[in-house]
Hints:
- By secondary structure, the chain is an all-alpha fold.
- It has 13 helices and no strands.
- Helix 6 (149-170) packs antiparallel against helix 8 and helix 8 packs antiparallel against helix 13 (288-316).
Amino acid sequence: MDKNPGFFKKWLISIRPFALPASTMPVIFGAVLAATYGNYSFNTLLFILSLFGMIVLHSAANILSDVYDFKRGLDKEPNPVSGGVVRKIISLREARNASIILFSIGAAIGFLLVYLTGIWLLVIGIGGLLIGIFYTTETRVSLKYHGLGDLAVFLNFGILGSLGSWYVQSGELSWIPVIWVVPMSTLVIAILHANNWRDIVSDKSGKITTIAGILGDKISLAYYGFLVFGPFIMILSMIFLPRLFFDNLPVMPYTFLLTLLAFPLAIKLWRIAFRRHSSSTPIDFVTLDGTTAKLNLQFGLLCTFALLLNFLLIHFI
Length: 317
């Protein structure tokens, strides 16, 4: 590995770009949902601002998390998905300053979007910002270290991202971007759980409470199975249950059956998790969070394509 990377590579490693789709896909999904299903006019500038703002805020949260994980002694040895602090590519001071700058830029973009759209975005944005800042801190409010990390990423990189993006495009609140993004949000939890599952021993030694630590190794396997297979069951439920039993609920288009194309990857991930103690390639389990992020990206893209395909079928075919 290059011990003296250039400026761009240095900060690219620090923000861990492999994790960014977890936060950006709900923003993309929410905007496309508003335009195709909600029939609102798509505003490209507002979409770009929303997407860039989420990237900046997620990068800030990633770097801040690396700072406190390193200070607590949780990240001692670098692995393929480590950030820049544990790899000694950037110092703690550089990382802390970078997170402050990025949070400030993200907040400024948020206030601009509030001015351009409406006050409800301020409520959504403040909630997301507080979760990002207090996800890892040295205070008692730290969400990641007190068993609330799963809920935090579910809200920030799923529910709030989709709802905020919908609101930016429509200027109105709705339950549709909240409910329909739940399968995608569940896969975001799967990414975090894979990370925490791998780090159960080090987290316990650092007196860190995570859902994986509470459940233990064996039950964490069952939980991971729910997180990677559950989204497919949720999609099928949202497609068929309203049509069969609940006429008053929003009907998810049949095109969302395309998400089943991601099912083979989910099976592959399950096998890696199941064989974690007997695999000939232990690195597969070490990097399970990064591989799970690929499933989240694939699933999110298929959801977005499903919306676009449904729109084309209705209006042009």
